[in-house]
Specification:
Length: 234
């Protein structure tokens, strides 16, 4: 096993599956089974999930909602997704804790770093919801910051593409995929891995990022066993 403790970043849009909005139960079950397999080999797993399948904070202003208010709405969307993922993981036989960056006491614990680490040590999967609890920060930044705080060895960014390309592979079929790339090269060429705050946090703390296709069965297991899957940014 290549890693002992990972942080898995999932996008909210990924939960839509083939739907146009909300949560696809089949996709949720698929993710739970993939996570179960790596949990069974003794991995410590933390998860950050986005909220774009329900509401995106940055699109709030376009419909006349104040940006700060919109960001808090987005945070609540990530709590909803976290609750759905928690339910799917527990149905698959895992122990979990949902921790929030804002107080939502009836449904989840407030994030406390030491408590999160203890949950991981006890074999529980920890899901971080509500971002870092402040507006203007994305769930990518949450993933980077929480990974550093809990001393995860890597951020695994699960997407619908199989790595980082020179251009959008859906629009440019001749785009080249990287197997690995340095932080400096990503920055110099302006490739989109994460938003700049999240990316800089990883760079400054020597925290590698692996971008991979989470929708392909077995990919998560291959990564934690040390296979070359997706793109390693280091």
């Amino acid at each position: 096993m290549k890693f002992k403790r990972i942080l898995l970043k999932l996008s909210g849009e990924a939960l839509m599956g083939k739907k146009k909005y909300g949560i696809d139960p089949q996709r949720l079950e698929q993710y739970a089974q993939e996570i179960r397999k790596v949990k069974d080999i003794g991995l410590e797993i933390a998860i950050v999930i986005g909220g774009g399948n329900i509401f995106r904070g940055e699109s709030a202003e376009a419909i006349g909602i104040d940006r700060v208010q919109g960001d808090y709405m987005g945070m609540l969307a990530t709590v909803i997704n976290g609750m759905a993922l928690q339910s799917a993981l527990e149905k698959a036989g895992m122990f979990t804790r949902l921790m929030s960056g804002i107080k939502v006491e009836q449904v989840c614990e407030q994030f406390i770093r030491r408590r999160a680490v203890r949950h991981l040590e006890k074999g529980r999967i920890v899901i971080f919801g509500a971002g870092i609890g402040n507006p203007y920060f994305t769930t990518d930044t949450t993933a980077s910051l929480r990974a550093i705080e809990i001393e995860a060895e890597v951020v695994l960014k699960g997407t619908r593409v199989d790595g980082l390309y020179t251009a959008d592979p859906e629009k440019h079929p001749d785009a080249k995929r990287f197997t690995q790339i340095s932080f400096q090269e990503v920055f110099k060429n302006g490739y989109e891995v994460m938003d700049m705050t999240a990316f800089t946090l990883c760079q400054e703390n020597n925290l590698p990022i692996i971008i991979f296709d989470m929708n392909k069965p077995g990919n998560l297991m291959k990564i934690v066993q040390g296979d070359e899957v997706g793109t390693l940014v280091h």
